[in-house]
Amino acid sequence: MHISSTFDAGNIQVVSIEEHHASLRIRPDVGDEHLQWFYFRVSGARGEQVTLDIENAGQVSYPKAWPGYQARVSVDREDWIQAPTSYKDGVLSIQVQPDADVFWVAYFAPYSAERHAELLAACQGQGAQLHTLGSTLDGRDLDMVVAGSGPRKLWVIARQHPGESMAEWWMEGFLGRLLDPDDAHALRLLDQATFYVVPNMNPDGSVRGHLRVNAAGANLNREWEEPTMARSPEVKLVRDAMDALGCDFCLDVHGDEELPHNFIAGAEGIPGWTERLDGLTQRFCDALERANPDFQQKVGYPKDAPGAANMSMCTSQTAQRFNCLSMTLEMPFKDTDDRPEPELGWSPERCMKLGASGIDAIVEVIADLR
Fold this sequence. Notes:
The protein is of the alpha+beta class. The mean pLDDT is about 100. About 25% of the residues lie in helices and about 25% in strands. It folds into two domains: about 1-105, Immunoglobulin-like, CATH 2.60.40.3120; about 115-370, 3-Layer(aba) Sandwich (Aminopeptidase). It has a seven-stranded mixed β-sheet, sandwiched between helices. Strands 1-4-10-6-7 form a five-stranded antiparallel β-sheet, with no helix packed on it. A five-stranded mixed β-sheet has the order 2-3-5-9-8, with no helix packed on it. The chain has helices at about 115-125, 165-180, 185-190, 205-210, 235-245, 275-290, 315-320, 350-365, and strands at about 1-5, 15-20, 20-25, 40-45, 50-55, 70-75, 80, 85-90, 90-95, 100-105, 130-135, 140-150, 150-160, 195-200, 250-255, 265, 325-330. The protein is globular, with a radius of gyration of 20 Å. The protein is built from eight helices and 17 strands. The longest helix is centred in the last third of the chain and has 18 residues, at about 350-365.
């Protein structure tokens, strides 16, 4: 049996392999503060019962994520199936009996740099404009999709934390519907607003196989108060563009390691929180729940107390800076408790469907953003 991870977004260290049992370790992000994302390839075990033990699972950023979690396995890198997974004494143990010569194992279905390029090309083919905001520390392009001609300025960003690949699957569904020439809701929105969409805020971390940080070890969602080109160019470039173009709405798309639910976190703790922003947030959530029952409002993060918001985070900073509706959408790595699917779990397809439903929620609030 052979195990490797020297490819886009790959992450694993092989400690030992004995027949069809492997001892593995997750490689930390740059800076050694975070680790949890894994993605690797296994070959030479067709038909055998394979045990893959991740020895340092108890040392990850979110060890409470493991109970109830199932790793994703694929033989074609298109369909990702949940594999029997258990956690005990700090070890995450994954069981696979492959019916193919090679299979891949990941924390969640990866969203590759190549698929990102294909997404951009598809958007351009559907009439959107592509802008390069600048370069990352590794020299990669920071891409922005621009669509629409209306006066409202709507920003949608994803994957500040690169290991949260479900966020870019969500983006594919969102952009696919936004640019659908046969969707009446989308066409009306494009007349009412101009959309600025950054499908991947952290391309360096994505390719490097990081969970949470960029090439400098910066957690981008803690850089919004004072971003710099030396440490967090991704945030600096986007925030500067927001300042120049305006921002009437911001949705920041993420994944949560521990909670098996889809939910919204708002900006309740900012100094400038008002009844207007509270009402818009509630209307957006209600509309999204009506549009897609995979979204719910019963379970989520506690709301910040007045004045207690972390202003280094995107949602808080943009809500205060632009006096606008700004929210964080969280999706699970685990399957959802609300509607579990034992084989696929919370899947790329469901992420994309939820992304498409975002159009319905924006329709509800677009007229009252200013």
